[in-house]
Amino acid sequence: MNQPRVDPAFESYSTVEIAKQAFDEAKELVGLEVQLAKVEAMTELKRLRSAAIAAGVAFALLLLALSALVSASILALGASVISGLAVAGVLLLLGGIAAAYA
Predict the structure, then answer these.
(1) In sequence order, what are the residues at sequence separation of 6 or more whose Cβ sits closer than 8 angstroms to the Cβ of residue 1?
(2) Cα separation of 56 and 62, whole Å?
């Protein structure tokens, strides 16, 4: 039966020395894994921050577009106080319906 090949340099080490070396290497590996996890978390946080900023900008632009549409609809209805109140009433009614289903 074939016996496993042992590096001659390791034959002079005691079991305690080998265990100590294995423990030191495991400790170093855990430290490296923690560092890697920190780097990955920071990368993910930067990506999340960028996405949140983009979503905020998109939301602000959406509100501006909706304001322009409301202004255009009021102008299309004759730009009077009555037409402004009518559009505001319709928007309030739609908002109330949407809130009821939320």
Answers:
(1) none
(2) 10
